[in-house]
Amino acid sequence: MLRLAAFAVTTSALAAAASGPLPPLPLGLLASPDRLTVSVSSSGNPRADGEYRLECGTPPSGTHPQAAKACERLDELAEQHKDPFAPVSKRQLCTQQYGGPATARVTGTWHGHEVNARFERTNGCEIDRWKQLEPLLPSARS
Questions:
Q1: What are phi and psi of 119, to 5 degrees?
Q2: Order of strands across the sheet with 61-62?
Q3: Consecutive 10-residue averages of pLDDT for the chain (142 residues)
Q4: Which one-letter DSSP state was computed for residue 114?
Q5: Which domains does the chain have, with CATH numbers?
C-alpha cells in the first residue's frame, strides 16, 4: 500500500513537471495601450503649448490634438526599430544652430517601457530629434 501511494505521488509530480507551466498568453492580450503625457512650452504657438494625454489604443484617444497621427508616427518609428525617446548620444556631432526656446517632456509608457524624455531645440541634433516626433510634439517656431 505504501509503495502504491509513493508511486501515485511520484507519477503525479512527474506528470506535472512534464506538462510544465501554462503557455503565456499572446502579447496583444496582455499589453496595455501606450499611455503618454506630453507637456510643451514656448513652442511659438500658444495653442500648442500645454499638457496633453495620449493613449495609443484602438482607437487612439486622450486630449492630444492629433492623437491618431501621433500614434501613427510612434508606430512608424517602432517598425523602424527606433527609440523616439532616446537622448542624443554625447558622442554625436551636432550643428550649433538654435531652434528656439521650445521645450517638451514626454512621460508614461510606450511599448511596455517607462518613458521620461526631455526635448529642446538647442542644436541641430535636438531640432532633428524634435522633428522626428512631430506630430506627437508640435511644429515649433524659432
A1: -125, 145
A2: 61-62, 50-56, 34-41, 103-110, 113-120
A3: 42 42 41 88 92 95 97 96 95 95 97 96 96 94 66
A4: E
A5: 27-132 (3.30.350.10)
